[in-house]
# Entry
Amino acid sequence: MLVLNETHNPELKSWVASANGTSTEFPIQNLPFAIFRRKGHDEAFRAGVAIGEHIVDLRAAHKAGVFPMELTPILKTLYKPRLNKFMALGKESWSALRLALSRVLREDSDKIVQLETCLIPQAQAEYKLPARIGDYTDFYTSIHHATNVGKLFRPDNPLLPNYQWVPIGYHGRSSSIKVSGHEFHRPVGQLKAPDADHPTLAPCKRLDYELEVGIYIGTENDLGESISIEKAEDHVFGLCLFNDWSARDIQAWEYQPLGPFLSKSFASTVSPWIVTMEALAPYRQQWSRPADHPQPLDYLDSQELRDRGAVNMHLEIYIQTKKMRKDGDAAERIAISNFNQSYWSISQMVTHHSVNGCNLKAGDLFGSGTMSGPSEDSVGALLEATEGGKKPITLKNGETRTFLEDGDTVILKGHCQSDSAPKIGFGEASATVLASKY
Ligand code: CA
# Structure
Protein backbone atom coordinates (compact mmCIF):
# COMPACT_ATOMS: atom_id res chain seq x y z
CA MET A 1 0.00 0.00 0.00
CA LEU A 2 1.15 3.52 -0.72
CA VAL A 3 1.70 5.77 2.25
CA LEU A 4 2.79 9.36 2.53
CA ASN A 5 6.19 9.95 4.11
CA GLU A 6 8.56 12.84 4.76
CA THR A 7 9.49 13.07 1.03
CA HIS A 8 5.93 14.17 0.22
CA ASN A 9 5.86 17.04 2.73
CA PRO A 10 4.54 20.01 0.70
CA GLU A 11 6.56 22.43 2.86
CA LEU A 12 9.93 21.02 1.73
CA LYS A 13 12.14 23.44 -0.18
CA SER A 14 15.38 22.75 -2.03
CA TRP A 15 18.68 24.63 -2.06
CA VAL A 16 18.34 24.35 -5.87
CA ALA A 17 16.41 27.61 -6.29
CA SER A 18 14.67 26.65 -9.56
CA ALA A 19 12.99 23.72 -7.77
CA ASN A 20 10.98 26.11 -5.57
CA GLY A 21 7.94 28.12 -6.59
CA THR A 22 4.78 27.21 -8.43
CA SER A 23 6.03 27.13 -12.03
CA THR A 24 8.46 24.22 -11.84
CA GLU A 25 7.46 20.70 -12.84
CA PHE A 26 10.28 19.25 -10.78
CA PRO A 27 10.02 20.36 -7.14
CA ILE A 28 11.77 18.30 -4.47
CA GLN A 29 8.57 16.24 -4.02
CA ASN A 30 8.81 14.86 -7.60
CA LEU A 31 12.34 13.45 -8.21
CA PRO A 32 11.69 11.56 -11.49
CA PHE A 33 14.33 9.43 -13.25
CA ALA A 34 15.77 9.67 -16.78
CA ILE A 35 18.81 8.51 -18.76
CA PHE A 36 20.81 11.48 -20.05
CA ARG A 37 24.16 12.91 -21.06
CA ARG A 38 25.47 16.37 -21.89
CA LYS A 39 24.57 17.34 -25.47
CA GLY A 40 27.53 17.43 -27.83
CA HIS A 41 29.80 15.53 -25.44
CA ASP A 42 31.21 12.13 -26.27
CA GLU A 43 30.32 10.68 -22.89
CA ALA A 44 28.25 7.78 -21.58
CA PHE A 45 24.53 8.04 -20.99
CA ARG A 46 23.70 7.52 -17.32
CA ALA A 47 20.91 7.91 -14.79
CA GLY A 48 19.76 11.27 -13.47
CA VAL A 49 17.01 12.72 -11.30
CA ALA A 50 15.33 16.03 -12.11
CA ILE A 51 15.41 18.88 -9.61
CA GLY A 52 14.09 22.26 -10.82
CA GLU A 53 15.91 23.14 -14.04
CA HIS A 54 18.73 20.71 -13.31
CA ILE A 55 19.58 17.02 -13.31
CA VAL A 56 21.39 15.30 -10.46
CA ASP A 57 24.03 13.08 -12.08
CA LEU A 58 23.61 10.06 -9.80
CA ARG A 59 26.96 8.46 -10.62
CA ALA A 60 28.79 11.71 -9.94
CA ALA A 61 26.81 12.26 -6.75
CA HIS A 62 27.63 8.76 -5.54
CA LYS A 63 31.32 9.29 -6.26
CA ALA A 64 31.18 12.63 -4.43
CA GLY A 65 30.10 10.68 -1.34
CA VAL A 66 26.80 12.41 -0.66
CA PHE A 67 24.78 9.23 -0.04
CA PRO A 68 24.82 6.81 2.92
CA MET A 69 27.21 3.88 2.38
CA GLU A 70 24.44 1.27 2.55
CA LEU A 71 22.95 2.61 -0.71
CA THR A 72 26.06 1.66 -2.72
CA PRO A 73 24.59 -1.55 -4.25
CA ILE A 74 21.51 0.43 -5.34
CA LEU A 75 23.55 3.31 -6.77
CA LYS A 76 25.82 0.99 -8.74
CA THR A 77 22.80 -0.20 -10.78
CA LEU A 78 22.41 3.43 -11.86
CA TYR A 79 25.83 3.63 -13.54
CA LYS A 80 24.27 1.80 -16.48
CA PRO A 81 22.79 3.55 -19.54
CA ARG A 82 19.42 1.89 -18.76
CA LEU A 83 17.28 1.84 -15.62
CA ASN A 84 16.26 -1.86 -15.92
CA LYS A 85 18.52 -3.16 -13.13
CA PHE A 86 17.39 -0.41 -10.77
CA MET A 87 13.73 -1.00 -11.72
CA ALA A 88 14.10 -4.71 -10.91
CA LEU A 89 15.37 -3.99 -7.35
CA GLY A 90 11.89 -3.25 -6.02
CA LYS A 91 10.12 -0.59 -4.05
CA GLU A 92 12.23 -0.70 -0.86
CA SER A 93 15.32 0.22 -2.91
CA TRP A 94 13.50 2.88 -4.96
CA SER A 95 12.17 4.36 -1.75
CA ALA A 96 15.51 4.31 0.07
CA LEU A 97 17.15 6.28 -2.75
CA ARG A 98 14.25 8.73 -2.94
CA LEU A 99 14.56 9.46 0.77
CA ALA A 100 18.32 9.98 0.50
CA LEU A 101 17.91 12.28 -2.51
CA SER A 102 15.18 14.27 -0.79
CA ARG A 103 17.41 14.80 2.28
CA VAL A 104 20.53 15.93 0.38
CA LEU A 105 18.51 18.28 -1.83
CA ARG A 106 16.70 20.06 1.04
CA GLU A 107 17.53 23.60 2.08
CA ASP A 108 19.17 22.37 5.28
CA SER A 109 21.34 19.75 3.53
CA ASP A 110 24.99 19.48 4.65
CA LYS A 111 25.99 18.09 1.22
CA ILE A 112 25.40 21.22 -0.87
CA VAL A 113 29.05 21.84 -1.69
CA GLN A 114 29.69 18.28 -2.90
CA LEU A 115 26.37 17.99 -4.74
CA GLU A 116 26.50 21.34 -6.53
CA THR A 117 29.21 20.01 -8.84
CA CYS A 118 26.97 17.06 -9.81
CA LEU A 119 24.15 19.19 -11.25
CA ILE A 120 23.71 19.54 -15.00
CA PRO A 121 21.25 22.04 -16.52
CA GLN A 122 18.42 20.27 -18.33
CA ALA A 123 18.90 22.79 -21.15
CA GLN A 124 22.31 21.20 -21.82
CA ALA A 125 21.10 17.58 -21.70
CA GLU A 126 19.98 15.02 -24.23
CA TYR A 127 18.07 11.88 -23.35
CA LYS A 128 17.65 8.33 -24.46
CA LEU A 129 15.04 5.69 -23.67
CA PRO A 130 15.14 5.27 -19.89
CA ALA A 131 14.81 1.49 -20.11
CA ARG A 132 15.38 -1.35 -22.51
CA ILE A 133 11.71 -2.01 -23.21
CA GLY A 134 11.46 -5.74 -23.74
CA ASP A 135 7.72 -5.93 -24.24
CA TYR A 136 5.16 -3.26 -24.87
CA THR A 137 1.47 -3.94 -24.20
CA ASP A 138 -1.16 -1.51 -25.45
CA PHE A 139 -4.33 -1.35 -23.37
CA TYR A 140 -7.61 0.36 -24.22
CA THR A 141 -8.78 1.60 -20.84
CA SER A 142 -10.83 4.73 -21.60
CA ILE A 143 -14.46 3.78 -22.04
CA HIS A 144 -15.08 7.20 -23.60
CA HIS A 145 -12.47 6.47 -26.30
CA ALA A 146 -13.76 2.95 -26.83
CA THR A 147 -17.32 4.26 -27.18
CA ASN A 148 -16.40 7.19 -29.45
CA VAL A 149 -14.37 4.97 -31.77
CA GLY A 150 -16.93 2.16 -31.61
CA LYS A 151 -19.65 4.63 -32.70
CA LEU A 152 -17.77 5.36 -35.91
CA PHE A 153 -17.83 1.70 -36.87
CA ARG A 154 -20.98 0.41 -35.11
CA PRO A 155 -23.37 3.31 -34.40
CA ASP A 156 -25.99 1.03 -32.83
CA ASN A 157 -23.60 -1.05 -30.75
CA PRO A 158 -20.49 1.03 -30.00
CA LEU A 159 -19.21 -0.89 -26.99
CA LEU A 160 -18.47 -4.57 -27.48
CA PRO A 161 -19.78 -6.83 -24.66
CA ASN A 162 -16.34 -7.87 -23.34
CA TYR A 163 -15.21 -4.27 -22.71
CA GLN A 164 -16.73 -3.93 -19.24
CA TRP A 165 -15.33 -7.28 -18.08
CA VAL A 166 -11.81 -7.55 -19.52
CA PRO A 167 -9.07 -4.89 -19.60
CA ILE A 168 -8.65 -5.10 -23.40
CA GLY A 169 -5.08 -5.04 -24.70
CA TYR A 170 -2.75 -6.39 -27.36
CA HIS A 171 0.98 -6.91 -27.75
CA GLY A 172 2.60 -3.88 -29.37
CA ARG A 173 6.00 -3.28 -30.94
CA SER A 174 8.78 -2.06 -28.64
CA SER A 175 11.61 -1.53 -31.16
CA SER A 176 10.04 1.63 -32.59
CA ILE A 177 9.47 3.38 -29.24
CA LYS A 178 11.64 6.52 -29.14
CA VAL A 179 12.31 9.19 -26.56
CA SER A 180 10.81 12.67 -26.95
CA GLY A 181 12.35 14.98 -29.53
CA HIS A 182 12.53 12.59 -32.48
CA GLU A 183 11.14 12.75 -36.01
CA PHE A 184 9.66 9.98 -38.11
CA HIS A 185 8.52 9.54 -41.69
CA ARG A 186 4.85 9.17 -42.48
CA PRO A 187 4.32 5.43 -42.78
CA VAL A 188 3.43 3.61 -45.96
CA GLY A 189 0.95 0.76 -46.00
CA GLN A 190 -1.93 -0.96 -47.68
CA LEU A 191 -4.91 1.34 -48.00
CA LYS A 192 -8.32 0.42 -49.32
CA ALA A 193 -11.16 2.84 -49.91
CA PRO A 194 -14.54 1.34 -48.94
CA ASP A 195 -15.75 1.36 -52.57
CA ALA A 196 -12.45 0.20 -54.14
CA ASP A 197 -12.00 -3.31 -55.55
CA HIS A 198 -8.53 -3.76 -54.14
CA PRO A 199 -6.01 -2.04 -51.85
CA THR A 200 -2.99 -0.02 -52.97
CA LEU A 201 0.36 0.64 -51.31
CA ALA A 202 0.57 4.35 -50.46
CA PRO A 203 1.55 6.81 -47.73
CA CYS A 204 -0.94 6.92 -44.86
CA LYS A 205 -3.47 9.75 -45.29
CA ARG A 206 -5.08 9.47 -41.85
CA LEU A 207 -2.16 9.83 -39.45
CA ASP A 208 -3.18 10.34 -35.81
CA TYR A 209 -1.75 10.70 -32.32
CA GLU A 210 -2.93 8.86 -29.20
CA LEU A 211 -2.71 10.57 -25.81
CA GLU A 212 -1.69 7.81 -23.42
CA VAL A 213 -0.04 7.26 -20.07
CA GLY A 214 2.96 4.89 -20.14
CA ILE A 215 3.34 2.47 -17.21
CA TYR A 216 6.79 0.97 -16.54
CA ILE A 217 7.06 -2.39 -14.81
CA GLY A 218 9.76 -2.73 -12.12
CA THR A 219 9.60 -5.85 -9.96
CA GLU A 220 9.27 -9.01 -12.05
CA ASN A 221 7.06 -12.07 -11.54
CA ASP A 222 8.12 -15.59 -12.47
CA LEU A 223 6.57 -17.31 -15.44
CA GLY A 224 3.51 -19.17 -14.17
CA GLU A 225 3.04 -16.88 -11.14
CA SER A 226 0.14 -14.44 -11.33
CA ILE A 227 0.18 -11.13 -9.43
CA SER A 228 -2.70 -10.47 -7.04
CA ILE A 229 -4.42 -7.11 -7.20
CA GLU A 230 -3.24 -6.37 -3.64
CA LYS A 231 0.40 -6.71 -4.78
CA ALA A 232 -0.02 -5.31 -8.31
CA GLU A 233 1.31 -1.80 -7.73
CA ASP A 234 4.44 -3.15 -5.99
CA HIS A 235 5.44 -4.27 -9.49
CA VAL A 236 5.08 -0.82 -11.05
CA PHE A 237 8.08 1.52 -11.13
CA GLY A 238 6.41 4.65 -12.47
CA LEU A 239 4.55 6.55 -15.17
CA CYS A 240 5.42 8.64 -18.22
CA LEU A 241 3.67 10.36 -21.12
CA PHE A 242 3.16 8.19 -24.17
CA ASN A 243 2.09 9.02 -27.73
CA ASP A 244 1.10 5.86 -29.60
CA TRP A 245 0.95 7.22 -33.19
CA SER A 246 -1.63 5.48 -35.36
CA ALA A 247 -2.29 5.21 -39.11
CA ARG A 248 -6.08 5.04 -39.14
CA ASP A 249 -6.46 4.09 -42.82
CA ILE A 250 -3.92 1.27 -42.59
CA GLN A 251 -5.64 0.18 -39.35
CA ALA A 252 -9.14 0.12 -40.87
CA TRP A 253 -8.05 -2.32 -43.59
CA GLU A 254 -5.75 -4.60 -41.60
CA TYR A 255 -7.29 -4.86 -38.12
CA GLN A 256 -9.70 -7.73 -38.62
CA PRO A 257 -9.58 -10.36 -37.21
CA LEU A 258 -6.38 -10.07 -35.11
CA GLY A 259 -6.20 -6.34 -34.37
CA PRO A 260 -3.77 -3.54 -35.34
CA PHE A 261 -0.38 -4.44 -36.82
CA LEU A 262 1.58 -2.05 -39.10
CA SER A 263 -0.82 0.80 -38.32
CA LYS A 264 0.77 1.08 -34.87
CA SER A 265 4.29 -0.33 -35.12
CA PHE A 266 6.01 2.50 -37.04
CA ALA A 267 6.53 4.89 -34.10
CA SER A 268 5.67 5.58 -30.47
CA THR A 269 7.04 8.39 -28.28
CA VAL A 270 7.78 8.42 -24.54
CA SER A 271 8.71 11.36 -22.33
CA PRO A 272 12.27 11.08 -20.92
CA TRP A 273 11.22 11.31 -17.27
CA ILE A 274 9.61 8.51 -15.25
CA VAL A 275 7.65 9.76 -12.25
CA THR A 276 7.72 7.04 -9.60
CA MET A 277 4.60 5.55 -8.05
CA GLU A 278 5.87 6.77 -4.69
CA ALA A 279 5.94 10.38 -5.94
CA LEU A 280 2.34 9.93 -7.14
CA ALA A 281 1.00 8.86 -3.73
CA PRO A 282 -0.55 12.28 -2.83
CA TYR A 283 -2.53 12.40 -6.07
CA ARG A 284 -4.39 9.11 -5.82
CA GLN A 285 -8.18 9.03 -5.95
CA GLN A 286 -11.01 6.61 -5.44
CA TRP A 287 -11.66 4.23 -8.30
CA SER A 288 -15.28 3.43 -8.95
CA ARG A 289 -17.65 1.82 -11.40
CA PRO A 290 -21.08 3.28 -12.10
CA ALA A 291 -23.62 1.19 -10.18
CA ASP A 292 -25.43 0.18 -13.36
CA HIS A 293 -22.22 -1.19 -14.96
CA PRO A 294 -20.89 -4.72 -14.35
CA GLN A 295 -18.62 -4.69 -11.29
CA PRO A 296 -15.16 -6.27 -11.74
CA LEU A 297 -14.66 -9.98 -11.12
CA ASP A 298 -13.16 -10.69 -7.68
CA TYR A 299 -9.56 -11.02 -8.92
CA LEU A 300 -9.81 -7.46 -10.31
CA ASP A 301 -11.33 -5.87 -7.20
CA SER A 302 -9.94 -4.79 -3.82
CA GLN A 303 -10.54 -2.22 -1.09
CA GLU A 304 -7.26 -0.47 -1.95
CA LEU A 305 -8.44 -0.18 -5.55
CA ARG A 306 -11.74 1.34 -4.44
CA ASP A 307 -10.03 3.75 -2.01
CA ARG A 308 -7.04 4.90 -4.08
CA GLY A 309 -6.88 3.03 -7.38
CA ALA A 310 -7.11 6.05 -9.72
CA VAL A 311 -4.42 8.67 -10.44
CA ASN A 312 -5.47 12.31 -10.78
CA MET A 313 -3.05 13.08 -13.63
CA HIS A 314 -3.95 16.06 -15.79
CA LEU A 315 -3.08 15.51 -19.49
CA GLU A 316 -2.73 17.93 -22.41
CA ILE A 317 -2.17 17.73 -26.16
CA TYR A 318 -0.45 20.55 -28.07
CA ILE A 319 0.17 20.89 -31.79
CA GLN A 320 2.66 23.09 -33.65
CA THR A 321 2.33 23.03 -37.43
CA LYS A 322 5.09 23.88 -39.89
CA LYS A 323 3.38 27.23 -40.53
CA MET A 324 3.14 28.01 -36.82
CA ARG A 325 6.85 27.30 -36.46
CA LYS A 326 7.64 29.53 -39.45
CA ASP A 327 5.46 32.35 -38.09
CA GLY A 328 6.97 32.03 -34.63
CA ASP A 329 3.68 30.89 -33.07
CA ALA A 330 3.83 28.79 -29.92
CA ALA A 331 2.31 25.32 -29.91
CA GLU A 332 -1.47 25.40 -29.41
CA ARG A 333 -3.31 23.28 -26.88
CA ILE A 334 -6.03 21.25 -28.59
CA ALA A 335 -7.28 18.94 -25.82
CA ILE A 336 -7.14 18.31 -22.07
CA SER A 337 -7.92 15.06 -20.33
CA ASN A 338 -7.20 13.16 -17.13
CA PHE A 339 -5.89 9.68 -16.36
CA ASN A 340 -8.58 9.40 -13.68
CA GLN A 341 -11.01 8.75 -16.56
CA SER A 342 -9.52 5.29 -16.96
CA TYR A 343 -12.16 2.56 -16.79
CA TRP A 344 -9.48 0.10 -15.65
CA SER A 345 -6.82 0.94 -13.06
CA ILE A 346 -3.06 0.32 -13.19
CA SER A 347 -3.47 -2.50 -10.66
CA GLN A 348 -6.19 -4.13 -12.76
CA MET A 349 -3.98 -3.97 -15.87
CA VAL A 350 -1.05 -5.62 -14.04
CA THR A 351 -3.20 -8.29 -12.41
CA HIS A 352 -5.11 -9.14 -15.56
CA HIS A 353 -1.91 -9.22 -17.65
CA SER A 354 -0.38 -11.84 -15.33
CA VAL A 355 -3.50 -13.86 -14.41
CA ASN A 356 -2.59 -16.49 -17.02
CA GLY A 357 0.94 -16.75 -15.60
CA CYS A 358 2.53 -14.34 -18.10
CA ASN A 359 5.79 -13.03 -16.65
CA LEU A 360 6.34 -9.26 -16.63
CA LYS A 361 9.92 -8.01 -16.92
CA ALA A 362 11.62 -4.92 -15.52
CA GLY A 363 11.37 -2.20 -18.15
CA ASP A 364 8.25 -3.57 -19.81
CA LEU A 365 5.91 -0.78 -20.85
CA PHE A 366 2.12 -0.67 -20.81
CA GLY A 367 0.24 1.99 -22.77
CA SER A 368 -2.99 2.97 -21.02
CA GLY A 369 -4.81 3.35 -24.33
CA THR A 370 -6.04 6.69 -25.62
CA MET A 371 -7.15 8.58 -22.53
CA SER A 372 -10.28 10.44 -23.61
CA GLY A 373 -12.68 12.06 -21.18
CA PRO A 374 -16.43 12.49 -21.52
CA SER A 375 -16.48 15.96 -23.13
CA GLU A 376 -15.74 17.13 -26.68
CA ASP A 377 -12.56 18.97 -25.71
CA SER A 378 -11.14 16.00 -23.81
CA VAL A 379 -10.67 13.53 -26.66
CA GLY A 380 -7.21 11.99 -27.00
CA ALA A 381 -7.10 11.32 -30.76
CA LEU A 382 -8.00 13.20 -33.96
CA LEU A 383 -10.11 10.21 -35.03
CA GLU A 384 -12.52 11.16 -32.24
CA ALA A 385 -12.09 14.96 -32.41
CA THR A 386 -12.98 15.02 -36.12
CA GLU A 387 -15.53 12.17 -35.98
CA GLY A 388 -13.51 10.00 -38.27
CA GLY A 389 -12.25 12.87 -40.46
CA LYS A 390 -15.70 14.38 -41.11
CA LYS A 391 -15.42 17.51 -38.92
CA PRO A 392 -12.07 19.32 -39.22
CA ILE A 393 -10.70 21.13 -36.18
CA THR A 394 -9.69 24.78 -36.71
CA LEU A 395 -6.52 26.15 -35.15
CA LYS A 396 -6.13 29.78 -33.98
CA ASN A 397 -4.20 30.77 -37.12
CA GLY A 398 -7.01 29.49 -39.34
CA GLU A 399 -5.34 26.22 -40.36
CA THR A 400 -7.55 23.14 -40.17
CA ARG A 401 -6.78 19.49 -39.52
CA THR A 402 -8.71 16.29 -39.93
CA PHE A 403 -5.56 14.22 -39.55
CA LEU A 404 -1.87 15.16 -39.15
CA GLU A 405 0.10 16.77 -41.96
CA ASP A 406 3.82 16.66 -42.70
CA GLY A 407 5.71 19.05 -40.47
CA ASP A 408 3.24 18.79 -37.58
CA THR A 409 4.77 18.45 -34.12
CA VAL A 410 2.56 16.90 -31.43
CA ILE A 411 3.49 17.50 -27.80
CA LEU A 412 1.95 15.70 -24.82
CA LYS A 413 2.24 17.22 -21.36
CA GLY A 414 1.01 16.13 -17.96
CA HIS A 415 1.06 17.01 -14.27
CA CYS A 416 -0.48 16.16 -10.93
CA GLN A 417 -1.63 18.70 -8.37
CA SER A 418 -3.92 18.72 -5.35
CA ASP A 419 -5.07 21.06 -2.57
CA SER A 420 -2.56 19.54 -0.19
CA ALA A 421 0.33 18.69 -2.56
CA PRO A 422 2.39 20.75 -5.01
CA LYS A 423 2.35 20.47 -8.78
CA ILE A 424 4.63 17.73 -10.09
CA GLY A 425 5.11 17.44 -13.85
CA PHE A 426 6.03 14.77 -16.37
CA GLY A 427 7.98 16.92 -18.85
CA GLU A 428 6.84 16.28 -22.40
CA ALA A 429 6.58 13.69 -25.15
CA SER A 430 7.13 15.48 -28.45
CA ALA A 431 7.75 14.28 -32.00
CA THR A 432 7.45 15.60 -35.54
CA VAL A 433 5.95 14.01 -38.66
CA LEU A 434 8.15 14.07 -41.77
CA ALA A 435 7.04 13.46 -45.36
CA SER A 436 6.76 9.86 -46.47
CA LYS A 437 9.84 8.32 -48.07
CA TYR A 438 7.60 6.57 -50.58
CA1 CA B 1 -2.63 2.73 -28.33
Remarks:
- The chain has a mean pLDDT of 96.
- The pocket of calcium ion is lined by residues 138, 210, 212, 244, 367, 369 (CB under 6 Å).
